[in-house]
C-alpha cells in the first residue's frame, strides 16, 4: 500500500512473481478480468498514477485464512481523480496469495460502477 501511495509502481511490480495473476471478478465488459504474468500487470498499472492520485488507505482490515500464504484484505482507498479533479473513494476486498515472498495471485473485488464514467479508464494513458 505504501508503494501505491508513493506512486512507485516499479517497486510495487517488484513484489510480483513472474507468473503472478491479477484478477478482477467484477470487471465489466471491455475491461480486463484477468492479467497473467508480471508483464501484463505492469502494462495495466503503468499509467495508474496518471489517473488516480491515491492519498491514503484510512481503513484496512487484514484477515488470515487457513492457508498461511493467503490473506483477505478489506481496504478503503481515498484520493482524487487526476483528469476530472473530483474525489476518489473506493472500498476494495482483495484476496492475496504469496509464494516465495512475491504476489502469486491477487483477486481485486472493487465496484466497477464507481469508475464507469468518461475519463476514468486508467488502463489508457492520458498522454497517448
Automatic annotation (TrEMBL):
Highest taxon above the source species: Bacteria
Domain SnoaL-like: 5-104
Cross-referenced InterPro entries: NTF2-like_dom_sf, SnoaL-like
Pfam families in UniProt: SnoaL_2 (PF12680)
Record's protein name: Phenazine biosynthesis protein PhzA/PhzB
Organism classification: Bacteria, Bacillati, Actinomycetota, Actinomycetes, Streptosporangiales
Amino acid at each position: 500500500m505504501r508503494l501505491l501511495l508513493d506512486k512507485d509502481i516499479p517497486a510495487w511490480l517488484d513484489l510480483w512473481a513472474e507468473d503472478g495473476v491479477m484478477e478482477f471478478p467484477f470487471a465489466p465488459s471491455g475491461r480486463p478480468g484477468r492479467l497473467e504474468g508480471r508483464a501484463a500487470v505492469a502494462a495495466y498499472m503503468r499509467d495508474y498514477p496518471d489517473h488516480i492520485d491515491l492519498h491514503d488507505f484510512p481503513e484496512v482490515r487484514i484477515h488470515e485464512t487457513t492457508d498461511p500464504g493467503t490473506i483477505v484484505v478489506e481496504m478503503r482507498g481515498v484520493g482524487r481523480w487526476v483528469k476530472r479533479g473530483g474525489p476518489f473513494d473506493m472500498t476494495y476486498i482483495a484476496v492475496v496469495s504469496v509464494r516465495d515472498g512475491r504476489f502469486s495471485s491477487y483477486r481485486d473485488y472493487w465496484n466497477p460502477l464507481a469508475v464507469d464514467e468518461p475519463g476514468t479508464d486508467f488502463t489508457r494513458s492520458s498522454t497517448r
